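Phytoene dehydrogenase, Streptomyces mashuensis. Tokens?
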Amino acid sequence: MTTPRQPRPVPRRDVLRYGTAAAAGAAAAPVAAGTAAARARRPARRRVAVLGAGVGGLTAAHELAERGFDVTVYERRTVPGGKARSLYVPHSGTGGRRDLPGEHGHRGVFGFYHNLPDTLRRIPHPGGGTVFDHLTAVHWIELARTGSRLDIPLPVRPLLPALSDPLRLVQSLAGLLQQALRLPPQEAAFFARRAVILFTSCTGRRFGQWEYVGWWDYIQAGRMSTDYQRLLGGGVQLLQALRPANASARTCGQGLEAILYDLLGRGSDGPADRIFDAPTSEAWLEPWAAHLRALGVRFVHGCTVEGLELRSGRITGARARTARGGTARIDADWFVAALPSDRVVRLWDGALRRADPRLAAMDRLQQTWCNGIQYYLRAPAPAVRGHIVHVDSPWKLISIHQSKLWRAGFARTWGDGQVQECVSVDVSDWDTPGILYGRPARECTRAEVAREVWEQMKAHLNDTAGRPVLADTQLHSWYLDEAIAETGHGLANDDPYLLNHTGSWDLRPDAATAVPNLFLAADYVRTYANVDFTSMETANEAGRRAAAAVLAAAGADGARAVPTFRGYEAPEFAAARLVDRDRWRRGLPHLLDT
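Tokens:
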């Protein structure tokens, strides 16, 4: 096992910019519950320890602080946000400019998100309005190809397929797939039929049948064309950090259905695709942390939780390691574990596993890698102002020239004044050999990963453009996700993602555990509102569910309940789902599954 990389210190000017008093107060706060006098001032059994400052943990803290709980958030890093946080190239800002920013990914806030936008609307922004006001619409998605095949630019705007009945929708989807993706007609029709089967399946069939069928097998990608396999099979890995061979058809179908309704303008909370108009930490996470502090939430950074103490059926405390290598104890009445799945299972000792067997089942959850790399360009590239899906890339790349959509001028705001543009790239496949070195990303050095990703992007963007979209002379520098570290045996990843594989729903716990004062708030928690693959939306919903469970356990007034928002369901398909429910109960296949 490799030693996790220590978080880099926050530059002094950033500490000053984001609130010296708040940062100093959090750093000075003791890891234990505080002095006896402070404890005496707090209402009995209202202290909540949130373990982890990712989106799930911050959401739980937000909801509980608004309802009068005394909340402290413990985080191993020096900044909040978890995987959602922005990354900054250390010491790259000169002349009063900020360090060069980067992201773990493209940070899409999709129209079918409902829980997250509700939170964004409740966070004031220092520049006026709310954080929600700093979302900007992305109007284009480009499917870039290699081998001199024409790229496919797709406008992100409402579609007009017929929803009047399932068969009409099959025809509409088939036509759209054939025209937009240039698939053979028979393959487009087959996929459309398989998609509509998922859309019109009853709940029992979704969880009792499609949860255990892999996406690749469900759409029969193995017998289809290469374009079908890459666009519709591998597309789930490009867009959702899933692996087509073992991602469940239920999870993929759920996401596909949400995207379709989003593009139809059905039940959407705004445009189908949005990003923040500045680096995520600046536009959202720093204002969020400041708002939570104003609500009374305390932050203790540099604190790594290493164990929980279970006595008489309750958590009586948590053991933590401080930034200086010492040990400390965390006291609270309620504990919300908001650590990612690969880390939180390390807290489950034998006593906890016996107290709640569902915690032990989490050992079988799987993780995958989906990490970002940033390229800083000396001149803007003539690329689309939107997401670019590099369809033929073996490493399943999706990129966006993010700074084209940011409000501030890049060169005058970040870096050394030479960088004009930032390109953010998600790398979703770290196990397939690349085109430059012939090795998987896991087996490369950090520098080799940077060169390989650059070459894969050039192969997609420069082959039919008439002039280079990306030129080597443009490249100023790059910055790979700091979670990726070199070891003597390849690369190690300090921030893997939950992988929704077939049957993983059975392994995922609910927010409330069998231990009455222990709750869970991360993207592995079962979520029911809309989609359940790893995303900021599912983490936000998990945090809401954890907060609601704390309120219920504390006997709080029901009028102060924490809401969750359900996804859209097309009323046109209600009758078809009722028919399928009857067929499922009788052991019959879906009516279209013949």
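The chain is about 30% helix and 20% strand.
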